[in-house]
Design goal:
This protein is α/β, with parallel strands linked by helices and 350 residues long. The protein has helices spanning 38-44, 92-95, 128-131, 141-145, 150-161, 176-187, 200-208, 222-229, 245-254, 299-310, 329-338; strands spanning 2-6, 12-16, 27-35, 60-67, 79-82, 122-125, 132-134, 168-172, 192-196, 213-215, 235-240, 255-263, 289-292, 320-325, 345-349. 27% of the residues lie in helices and 23% in strands. Strands 3, 4, 5, 6, 7, 14 and 15 form a 7-stranded mixed beta sheet that branches. It has a 6-stranded parallel beta sheet with strand order 10-9-8-11-12-13, with helices on both faces. Strand 14 (320-325), helix 11 (329-338) and strand 15 form a beta-alpha-beta unit. It is globular. The protein starts with a strand and ends with a strand.
């Protein structure tokens, strides 16, 4: 099979690899469509150490090619989705409800970080009964792809934010994850959704995704503007969806006493430290809560996300700005590196 692989810091390329074989509890999927994630770009820059030749990618759907002898939830030929996070479902972390941390810190992130990813013509899925989800016939591969990471992560950010019905929330950055957090905040009943974004195309998309107001951080003091929009008290919750020290600090600054800072941004390139502005944190006594999340996985969560799309509650497909055949996957990856041509998410078809 052919696959997009890491070939050294700053280098990617399509290589040939053997089609994987499933163990008794696993499955191998023949890929039909993928999305490329900015996390793959971070990995290629060296943020996560991986060996040369490791396959990239964690957002793919397809059909079951082979299944292990113990797998009962799917048949060969079934159309399925699998989350970017593939927990075992059995360890202490999974049993405690933190399946994203399966086996230890960030341990549910197995694609690329621990073994080959799924930007390939075939890919391996561990613990298939726990992780594979049938795609409803009414949904396209493109729609289903968004459940594998972006929607699950964005929803986790809004869930952790504990936004009261009718409450206020600020979502910092409107990249793919931030846009999905904006959708989710509206879906969960926020009464005022403030998006923070400077790029004109993303500002417009944020409004389509449910933002009531978009604040441009290049046009003034974003903290003062959000305070003004909330009568000086700040928001009930702030969602950090960029992974940058400034946006993290601003989340703390705009959140009212007793509120929640929900972090879903990837801080791998932010250095070794994040700082908390102490005055706005109430010197540690402001009843502000900081929550973090890695994209939750598992069959049940994806089933619910697919249902939201199928019944028209959310539509993530406007995030797809580019389409490529797999033969042009390297070009698609380099566009994600440079963010040229206003790219948000590129769809790869096999």
């Amino acid at each position: 099979m052919k696959a997009l692989a890491f070939l050294g810091i700053g280098k990617v390329g399509v290589i040939d690899k053997p089609i994987p074989e499933p163990g008794p509890n696993d499955a191998v999927i023949k890929t039909t469509a993928s999305l490329i994630c900015t996390s793959d770009v971070h990995t290629v820059r060296g943020v996560i150490p991986i060996p040369e030749g490791r396959v990239l990618g964690h957002e793919s759907v397809g059909v079951v090619y082979k299944r292990g002898a113990n797998v009962t939830s799917c048949q060969e030929g079934d159309r399925v989705a699998v989350c970017a996070i593939t927990p075992c479902g059995r360890c202490a972390y999974c049993q405690r409800g933190y399946s994203s941390q399966c086996g230890g810190m960030l341990g549910g992130y197995k694609f690329t970080a621990q073994r080959d990813g799924n930007l390939a013509e075939y890919f391996f899925v561990n613990d298939a009964d726990y992780n594979l989800t049938p795609i409803p016939p009414a949904l396209s591969d493109e729609q289903a792809l968004y459940t594998t990471d972006m929607l699950s992560t964005g929803l986790a950010g809004a869930e952790n934010a504990e936004i009261p019905v009718g409450g206020t929330v600020a979502v910092f950055a409107q990249g793919p994850v931030g846009l999905c957090a904006t959708m989710a905040a509206r879906l969960l009943g926020a009464g005022l959704v403030i998006a923070v974004e400077s790029k004109p195309d993303r500002k417009e998309l944020a409004k389509r995704c449910g933002a009531d107001i978009v604040v441009d951080p290049t046009q003034g003091d974003v903290v003062e503007e959000i305070k003004h929009l909330t009568n000086g008290v700040g928001v009930d919750a702030a969602i950090e969806a960029l992974g940058h020290p400034v946006t993290f600090e601003n989340c703390v600054k705009v959140t009212k006493a007793g509120g929640v800072i929900s972090n879903i941004g990837y801080h791998g390139e932010a250095g070794n430290m994040l700082q908390i502005p102490l005055a706005e944190f109430g010197l540690g006594m402001g009843d502000k809560k900081i929550r973090t999340a890695l994209c939750p996985g598992g069959r049940e969560r994806l089933t619910r996300l697919l249902r939201l799309i199928e019944n028209g509650r959310v539509d993530p497909t406007p995030l797809t700005t580019h389409r490529f055949p797999f033969a042009e996957v390297e070009r698609a990856f380099h566009l994600m590196e440079t963010k040229q041509d206003n790219i948000i998410k590129p769809l790869i078809l096999y």
